[in-house]
Amino acid sequence: MWQEPGNWGVRSQGGLGADSAELISALVYKTLSRGYSKDQELACDAWSYRAMRKSGVSHDDCCAMSRKFLRREEKAGSSGNKSSGSTGKLKSELDAHFRTHPPAKKRLEALEKLK
Predict the structure, then answer these.
(1) DSSP character for 102?
(2) How much is the pLDDT for 17?
(3) Residue 80: helix, strand or coil by DSSP?
């Protein structure tokens, strides 16, 4: 089974070498494994919402999973587990750039507009 690469066996005495190798391997992995675009994800959310509503599911129940994802993202963001320094900042920027799913807040806001 394919797993997201860590540092792919790069050994170093620490320092920027191993960090750079990990960032490069993560960038390559994310580039090759990109899924759907954020717009496609939002369109899929809307389609799913409408299908659930047609089958009798309440608005609140349709949005329940998106609310759960939002709480999870907020908890992760406030946990203080963020990398520090320039390497951490670069990794955060790369993660945001190559993210295929819209942030949970944006997804929930889009679903709320469908009510």
Answers:
(1) P
(2) 63
(3) coil
Report how far residue 115's alpha carbon sits from residue 111's, in angstroms, rounded to the nearest whole number: 7
Considering only CA atoms, which of 27, 22, 26 is closest in space to residue 10? 22
Residue type, 99: R
Cβ atoms of residues 26 and 94 within 8 Å = yes
C-alpha dihedral over 38, 44, 50, 56, to 10 degrees? -120
Cα–Cα separations (whole angstroms), residue 22 to 40, 75, 89: 29, 25, 14
**Digit-coded pLDDT (tens) for 40-92:** 889 999 999 999 999 999 999 999 999 999 999 888 776 545 555 666 777 67
Indicate the SS3 state at residue 78: helix
The first and second tokens of residue 9, run together, are 């066996």
CA–CA separation, 51 and 64 (whole Å):
15
Residue 13 is encoded by which pair of tokens?
């005495």
| Residue 55 Cα distances to 43, 75, 115, angstroms | 19, 32, 15
> What's the confidence (pLDDT) of residue 1?
44
